[in-house]
Amino acid sequence: MNIRHLIDITDFTTAEIDALIATAEDIIENPAKYQDACSHKQLATLFFEPSTRTRLSFESAMLALGGTVLGFSEAASSSTAKGETVMDTIHTVSCYADIIAMRHPKEGAPFAASFSSEVPIINAGDGSHNHPTQTLTDLLTIHRERGSLDNFTIGFCGDLKFGRTVHSLANALSRQTGIHFVFISPDELKMPDHIKHHVLEARGFSYEETTSLEEAMPKLDVLYMTRVQKERFFNEADYIRLKDTYILDPEKLVAAKKELCILHPLPRVNEIAVAVDADPRACYWKQVKNGKYIRMALILKLLGIEV
Ligand code: NCD
Questions:
Q1: What confidence tens digit (pLDDT) does each residue in 97-138 have?
Q2: 287 lines ligand 1 (CB under 6 A)
Q3: Is there an atom of ligand 1 within 6 Å of 165 CB?
Q4: Rounded to whole angstroms, how far apart are CA atoms 174 and 64?
Q5: Ligand 1 pocket check: which of 134, 136, 228 to mutate, most ligand atoms within 8 Å of Cβ?
């Protein structure tokens, strides 16, 4: 059997993503039906970079499917610290586990790892490149909030240069229809050309770029806020200068649509005031919950388990 991996969101067709969303929605409605689906299966979470939600949602997902988990949450506690290559670490773990979710600071590391693995590899974030399982989480949340993945205006705000979640989500949405993109960032943190030219323009999508969140706000149906990615900066002074460029607060939301859906992959630092959490348009805590259900659906799919 050919092993399927999830390295880039386009590894799945849009029909496969729709099916994953349908499974996740069925899991939400009927959790008991799935509770033993992965009994005797093991998930390894190999995190060479910090994480709270992604790693724990994978572990919680596997446990909710009746499976077990193993792994490490920092490179220092693995043989990487002795100089072992990622390829050898993955090869080793694929001798124990049935499926592996890995996060790595180097772009392309999960893709390289997939060549030495005997089991499915899931990219849980590679540097500033991609984050396909966050994208599945975002798509499930948009689907649940709006009832569809088509015909809306989305604003991506913050660090569009280094934010891997925005790269993957823009890529996924440019396979839908009727999406208009508004990129809101300081000049230093603009959406990379490879996404604008080779993904959006190549697929016939329009986008606009602005530095003003206030100006963009009234036209947005979805607002995707992001953190300035401190760990990807070469120089601390630049990070300090840019980190608080955008702070979403109740005052800025006065100009927003009533049915706006506010997303954030989290963790937030300062970019969304805590007071916004009480606004019914704040969907980021629902997004956290959805991350577990879509990962349950993903594990089932990659293991070829039908319930
Ligand atoms: C994101 C990530 O790791 O890229 N977090 C997440 O997985 N939910 C966003 C971030 O760290 O800013």
A1: 999 999 999 999 999 999 999 999 999 999 999 999 999 999
A2: no
A3: yes
A4: 32
A5: 134
